[in-house]
Design a protein that fits this description.
mainly beta; 4 helices; about 200 residues; single chain; three-stranded antiparallel sheet; six-stranded antiparallel sheet
């Protein structure tokens, strides 16, 4: 699968000479299928994981901690990803197990645009407790951040499938390219329930 690259305008000629190709539909550069990703390392964010489509979006609802209205929430997951070793010349290894991603520091804007067509409340927002911005759920009523720790790691979180959550559903979003993300990830047994 082709891998999306993050190429600045001033680097486009260098990327092109290196072998990157342009996708006019998504308006992004990408590494061709079966490329050595190390030669494109300059255009992959540090510490990134490459997610392979389809993107699995978990949908849920929860009470906003601030305004106490019920708001929509979502989480991004994939069944396959490519991770790199931390060597000077990384080795890229494909992993196949369902993971959810949170505290998302980086996500290509073309992926954000796809997600925001369904979840406009998925925003790049500042967290006082983390002291930084990240891509996260916000309340559809008051706009306040709905913290990722509570949504993904607390015992009674909406995406914890150790308990059956009747108001948690999922959908697959198609996306043409494998794409980089910088985030934390957590395992889940969700794959056994949704049969992806």
């Amino acid at each position: 699968m082709e891998t999306q690259l993050i190429v600045k305008y001033e680097d486009k000629e260098k990327a092109k000479i290196t072998g990157a190709l342009w996708n006019p539909e998504l308006k992004t550069w990408y590494a061709p299928r079966n490329s050595d990703l190390n030669i494109f390392r300059d255009w992959l964010p540090a510490e990134s994981i490459l997610l392979k489509p389809p993107i699995i979006i978990l949908n849920g609802r929860k009470e906003c901690w601030s305004c106490h209205n019920t708001t929509k929430i979502m989480s991004i997951g994939t069944d396959a990803r490519i991770e790199s070793t931390s060597n000077r010349t990384p080795i890229w290894i494909e992993r196949n197990s369902f993971k959810l991603y949170y505290w998302i520091d980086f996500l290509p804007i073309s992926v954000v645009n796809v997600i925001q067509t369904i979840y406009p409340t998925f925003q790049y927002i500042h967290s006082k407790s983390l002291g930084k911005k990240y891509w996260a759920n916000t309340c559809e009523h008051c706009g306040r951040l709905q913290g990722d720790w509570e949504l993904h790691n607390e015992p009674d979180n909406p995406f914890d499938i150790l308990f059956e959550r009747p108001n948690t559903t999922w959908q697959a979003l198609e996306y043409e390219l494998c794409f980089p993300i910088v985030a934390e990830m957590r395992s889940t047994r969700l794959r056994k329930i949704i049969n992806i």
